[in-house]
Amino acid sequence: MQTWMPFLPERASSLSGKVDALYFYLSGVTIFFTLLISGTLIFFVIKYRRRSPYEIPRPIAGSHKLETLWSVIPLLIAMSMFVWGAQVYFEQARPPESPSEIFVVGKQWMWKLQHTTGQREINELHVPVGRKIKLIMTSEDTIHSFFIPAFRIKTDVLPGRYTTQWFEATKPGTYHLFCAEYCGMNHSGMIGSIVVMVPSEFDDWLSGNSSQQSPAIAGQQIYQSLGCVSCHGANGEGGRGPTLAGLFGGQVFLTSGETVKADEAYIRESIVNPQAKLVSGFGPIMPTFQGQVTEEQLLQILAFIKSLQVANPQPATPATGPMAPAPSAAATARPNLR
Ligand code: CUA
C-alpha cells in the first residue's frame, strides 16, 4: 500500500504513528520558519534597499520587548520538541510488561533469530500481529543495527553487550529488515524480512517448526556440560557460587559494597568476566568462559537462568530456595509466548 507521501514506509506497528506525528511536526516547524525567515529577508532587502549613494539610515534603539519575544517563542517551540521527543523515546525504549522475547544475534553478514519456544530463523522473523515482542540483541563481531522501517524502530547491535528493542506489529504483511550500520563488505546484503501473521496463522507456523529445543532447555544442557552445576548447584551443592534460582531480576550484593540488578548484562558479564562483579560472600574462584561459549549459547544460558524463577523471589543473596529442575524450566520457558 502506497501512502500519500513518497518514500514514507508503511506504518505497521503501534509506535509508527507516534514517530510519524513527531516527524511531521518537526518538518512542519522547519518548513514554516524557513519560509518565514527567507520571505522576510527578501522583503526587507527590497523594501530597505539603498536608494541614493548619500543615504544615511535613521538610528535604531534596541527593543527589550522584541528581544524577549524572539527568545521566548523559540524556547517554547524547542521545549515542545524536547518534551514530545522524550515521550516517544521513553515509550520505545522501555519494553512493556511481560513481552514475548526473541533473541537476535548479528554477524557478518546475517541475522540469526531464535524464539523462546526454540524456533530458529535466519534473516527472517515471523511474529504475530497484536503481541508485544521484545528483542534481546547482541553481535558476534562488529556493530550492526537492527532496522525495521515499517515499525519505525532502529537499534544498534553491539558486540559484548545486550541491547533491547520492542514492538507490537499492527498489520499482517511482509516488511523489510535492514542492517543500518556499515559493518563490512556485504553490509548491504545484510537484509531480511519480518513476516507479520494473524495469531492463528502464527500458531500454525510455530507448531510446524517446533522440532528445535527451547533456548532454556539448550541453556540447561550447556550449564551441565560446562560443569556450572558443580558450583552453582540446584540446592546449594558445591556452594562455591551463588545459586541461580530466582537470581534474574533481583538485587545482588557485591563484595565491593555495591548492589546491582541481575539483568541480562550482569549475567552475561558474570559468565565472561566473573571477577568484574564479585557476589558478596564468595571468593574470586570462577574461571572466565570467554571464548568457550558463543553469543547464542550465552543467550541460551540466560534463558535457562531466567526460567529458574522461585515463587517468592528473595531480593537478597542465596537462600535455600527450591531450584527448578529441568521439567519446570521447560514449563516456565514455554508459556512466555502464549
Ligand atoms: Cu551488519 Cu551492516
Gist?
This protein has helices at residues 16-47, 64-93, 199-207, 215-225, 264-272, 295-307, 326-333; strands at 100-107, 110-115, 120-122, 124-128, 132-139, 144-148, 153-157, 163-168, 173-179, 191-197, 251-253, 259-261. It is α+β, with helices and mostly antiparallel strands and 338 residues long.
Structure characterization notes:
- With 338 residues, this protein is an alpha+beta fold.
- 33% of the residues lie in helices and 20% in strands.
- The longest helix has 32 residues, at 16-47.
- 27% of the residues are buried.
- The structure holds dinuclear copper ion.
- Dinuclear copper ion binds next to loops.
Distance between the termini: 30 Å
Order of helices and strands: HHEEEEEEEEEEHHEEHHH
How much is the average pLDDT? 83
Helix tally? 7
Unreliable sequence segments = 312-338
* Secondary-structure class: alpha+beta
The hetero compounds bound to this protein are:
dinuclear copper ion
> Radius of gyration, Cα only, in angstroms?
27 Å
Percent of residues in beta strands? Answer: 15-25%
Helical fraction: 25-40%
- Per DSSP E runs of 2 or more residues, the count of β-strands stands at 12
